[in-house]
Every structure is written in structure tokens, then in C-alpha cells.
Amino acid sequence: MKLLKVSRILLFTFLTLIFSNCNEDEILSNSTAELVTIGDKDYRPDFHFTPQSNWMNDPNGMVYYEGEYHLFYQHNPDASVWGPMHWGHAISKDLVNWQEMPIALYPDDLGNIFSGSIVVDSNNTSGFKTGSESPLVAIFTHQNPVNNNQTQSLAFSNDKGRSWTKYEDNPVLVNNNIVDFRDPKVSWHEETQKWIMVIAAGDEIMFYSSPNLINWDYEHSFGKDVGAHGGVWECPDLFKIKDENGQETWALLVSINPGGPNGGSGTQYFLGDFDGETFTSSQESTLWLDYGTDNYAGVTWSNEPSNRNLFMGWMSNWSYAQNVPTYSYRSAMTFARTLHWQNTNNNSIIVSKLPTELIYVIGGNMVDNNNATSKFELLNDETLGEGKFYLETTLDFSAINEAKIEWGNKSSSVVINYNKVTGELLLDRSESGYKFNNLNGNVLKCPYVLPDSNQLKISMLVDKSSMEIFLNDGERVLTALVFPLAPFKNLEISGNNEIEFIKKLKINQL
Ligand code: FRU
Fold first, then answer.
1. Does 381 qualify as catalytic in the annotation?
2. Using CB atoms within 10 A as the burial measure, which of 29, 117, 178, 270 is most buried?
3. Rounded distance, CA 69 to CA 305, Å?
């Protein structure tokens, strides 16, 4: 294993050295004509959060307070691989531009700082308030690096998240011999006037309640006999979610690793009821928030000002996260998404949408076509020049069975193929460029049966090494990484016959 890792690192150092010593013309004129400099610069996304340096995994403590969206994250400040976990910190006013802040939480005598959440304690139930600001209270897992014991602890900030003090009587929730007992997500339950904690325990979720964030009572456990159990359950989140008529239900997100829908890490969810003590769900099938390989450990923002279920996940997969070919930094977050309940034709699901903030990044309208066509082609086009674009198209399958969207260069490409008969969308990255792991270069499968309208709207956000693909306004989502060896400048949309099936097409440069 170790040897394999070392040889991978050597191969990449070698490639990077070769490419950084050549200029583009030289490279283009040699036999591997399309190779240009690869490396961090070409893979680091522009409008997704990445840490300035070193390792990042789960988003933590996402909270909104006084005009600022806070994003904390699992961070190893000393290496680009997982290690002693700290909470890194970034702030944004618009969910697009992020400012990295000093590290918020460092490991201490009780251990490393694993994932958790933050709440705004407006009523000062914890008694942590010292000044005029409401205290922000972080509830996180302390992981003892010697015996891996996991307990739950608190820290608080009275200066809008700038400085943090750990609670002197940590931990506030000890562990009764559960091997994996972590990632507390806390929210205020208005009806019972209590804080509710959901926490992953092996492959189920435990519910606790508290009047003050300090004393916790066990309520119940959920999940033993339902959902996917191919791996450990992690990073739960519990929230109310509305449908378009304003009707409410409860959702419980649960990340699972391995056992995701396309291998490795994934996030499933349950829709049901919660009465302040017990979560129940009559859901029979396993539902996935994302069919891509690269959206993990995602949860929603606390105290979101417009009461949106605003979600963000870690854009990687534990099966290969530490081998992703970037060195100065490792990993990005997904773009923020809003989650909604869609409850039609006995089909009760969560749909994910890009939030309106996206308009801040959308630049020139490069293609805006409302006339139906049978084929669309961009060849060597600057629109896709830097590998960052937003595409939205509506494809009409009334008279065709199969269509594909392919973007790439002469030697490699990514292909989305939807087949109406099999009711399946394939995202094929097998010829997409650099692959460092079977899972990373695989073909992703996503079951999706078209609605009666026969229309498939595909919205796609591409940011250099990532793509986020939404089918019919988020009924299905695929988030996946891709590492082209040269810019992808060609795009083609075609169907299995000459019918004018491309009803609308819009491409924006980002
Ligand atoms: C999920 C996870 C969490 C844990 C953290 C450690 O990706 O394994 O369960 O708290 O990462 O970094």
C-alpha cells in the first residue's frame, strides 16, 4: 500500500516537473500534442471553496450570523493528507467569495477536533454570553488519538466567530463504548423549547435533547433496519423541509462510507416525522441526495436568514481523497445548494437546486438559443476555454430514445448519456484524462425515469476539475471530479436521430 502511494507521488512529482519546465508550445508540438501544464493551478476551482493550503474534509459548523456565512471545516494545516484534525474557518457574504480566517479550533488534551455543528444561542441558554453579541456555540467531537475514543465537547465565541474558547468542563457527552460516536448536529426545536442533537453511532443515528447545550438526555436511536448499511454512518443532519405549497415534513441526512450509490462515500436521506423525541419514517427505499462520487458529509446551514435549507458538502470521496492530484491544497466544497421537498405522484423526494447567489458568478452569455435544433457543436471554442462554465439545456425525448452531451478535447472527454428506454443516465469519465483510482475514473450510473412531459432539463456547473449536474431542477444530482490533461474546448449535444430535440440551450462563461 505504502509503496503504491510513494510511486504515485513520484509519478506526479515527475509529471509536474516535466510540465513546469516546458512551455506550452513545446508541449503542444510534441507527440502528446494536447498535454499542457497540469497541476494545482489548472485543477483548483475558482468559485468553489478550497483551503489556501493543505488538507480539508467535511464542512463543519456552518452557521449564518449578522451578514456572514461561516464555513468551518476539517483541516490538517500541516500536510495535504488527513492528519490531526483542526477546524479551519472561512467567511463569505455571498456564498461565492470566501475569505479564509485563522484556524478556529486546535487539538488539545482531549484529542483531535472532529466534525460538528454551531448554533446561535440567542437566548443564552448555555450562559456563555459575555458581551452584546449572541454566543455562537460549537458542538464537536473530540477524538482521542491514542484509543480513538470519541466524546462530544463545546466551544463558544462572543465575537462573531472570530475567537473561540473551549468549555472548561468538556466533554459534555461521554461515550459508552460505541466505536464510532461522532459528528453532532444540533438545532433548536421550537415546539419543545429544547436543543436536539443528532449524532452518528456506528450505523445508526442517536437523538439527544438538552435545555442548555451542556446537559444532554438520550431520546432514541433510528436507522438499524432501514436505508443503506454498506459502511459506517456519519455526519447526520435533521431539519424541517417544505414543499412548493409550504407543507412541511422532516428530513434526516446520513452520510455513509463506504456503500454510496456509485461506490465509496455517499449521502442518503430519510423523510419522516419528528415530535421532539422520536424520528419515524415509513420510507421503504434508500434515497440518495447525490449519485456522483464526490459529495460527502454535507449538512445544512444553521440560522439561515431566509429559512432556506442551504446545503454544502465535501467534494471528494474517502476511497481516493488523499490521492487526488493536487498538492498545495487538497479538496474543495460543493457549490451551496438549496434543498426542497418534492411530493408528487407518490414520489416524495428531496430536490437540490443551485441558489440564486449563482448569478454573481455567471458572466457573459455565450450561447442562448431558444430555437429547437437537432445537434449542437462547439469546436475549440473559447467559451469553454478555462474549463469553467454553466450550461442549461432542455432536451425533448418525445421522438428520441437516447441523447448525449460530450465535452472534451481531441484525446479525452466526459460523456453524459441518457437513455429513455433503460431509464438511466450514465456519466462516463473513463476517457476523461488523469485517473488515479478505479472509482475516480468510472462510469457513474443514475436511475431516472422521465416525467410524462418527456423533457429532460440538464443544468451543469463545471469548475475546472469538478462538475455538478442537476436533472430536472435537482430531482437527481451528480457531483463528480475530473482531471483533464488539457483544457476541454469542444462540446457536442446529439441524439439518436435527426429530430430537433434540443429545445433550449444556454451556456455562460464563469
Ligand atoms: C466524515 C468523517 C467524520 C469525522 C471526520 C474526521 O468524513 O469521517 O465522521 O468526524 O470525517 O475528519
1. no
2. 117
3. 10
